[in-house]
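We read letters as residues; the fold follows as tokens. A sample entry reads:
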Amino acid sequence: MTADFDFYCNVFLGRLIPEENFSGLAGKAADFIRFAVGPWQPSSDQDRLALLKAVCAVAEILQDEEQSGSFAKETVGDYSVSYQSSSLSPERRKLDAIKIYLSGVPALAGLFRVRSFPCSHRIR
């Protein structure tokens, strides 16, 4: 399930992606979300709305990656260095965007909880 350009502009209120690029980016975003959360289908209109917003958010990140590139490269003579142009990795940015919209979906809540386990070691 993916969002259309009308949803992107009028519900998500996005302005970064031109119409001619939206369909491809939304498809890639939906694929990324399926990979991240597994085989899940929204069971309510609220869950569907959250999913479509997540698709739009990830599509904007993909647009940003395509425009600016995830990595910058600098070469001086024989020396070359590459570094990330963002403090967060592209994958982390997309996962954080998914979390913003899908962490409130009851069926997916377990994916976004931090799990802690009691320590079994004793300090002497």
